[in-house]
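Crash report, auto-generated. Payload:
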Amino acid sequence: QKEVEQDPGPLSVPEGAIVSLNCTYSNSAFQYFMWYRQYSRKGPELLMYTYSSGNKEDGRFTAQVDKSSKYISLFIRDSQPSDSATYLCAMSAPPWGGSNYKLTFGKGTLLTVNP
Amino acid sequence: DTEVTQTPKHLVMGMTNKKSLKCEQHMGHRAMYWYKQKAKKPPELMFVYSYEKLSINESVPSRFSPECPNSSLLNLHLHALQPEDSALYLCASSQGPQGSRSGNTIYFGEGSWLTVV
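Recovered output after restart:
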């Protein structure tokens, strides 16, 4: 079993739809959870960062972490064509620093929002 | 816009060439990273510098040589590369090991597209 599982898609939705992106993980030591958005031929852009469990909202984006289920989600409300990109989940375990700077990424989900 | 700046954006080099990729950040971050990303794959960690010292080398071939001249700059020297080294090379930074919880957040640059011919 891989440490982080993410459905690569592709996922295609109409404009205005609610999008749900998910990752599962097996390492119970993970405490820091991130979602990155990557447009074609660009570097990953940090969208959301969550420490431990709970929800975090930023505009149209909501990140959820359920550590009991080892499951994280990113919701995009009122999706726009400009949201079309690859979404990568990433996570890491404490202690941060030293030999433990590693982020473990999911494979990424390719999302297309159709006008 | 990202605050991690990478140059050049595109680089084509022959297998006998020597070239360098450069990265700069002015966020006061004390950890800097090189990642390699192939098409349709997530980024793979290559090197980590923490407080200007090499902290992690993920068994990267010696034809890739990192350098951290100061806390704001990171270079990746390239020599005798192979065509399979063609990829997007990403520089990133984070606050560092002694930062707050948000210090674990890694910020990426736009990347340098490398083609080895």
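Post-recovery validation: The interface with chain A takes residues 2, 4, 6, 31, 33, 40-43, 45, 48, 50, 55-56, 88, 90, 94, 96-99, 101-111, 113 of chain B (CB under 8 Å).
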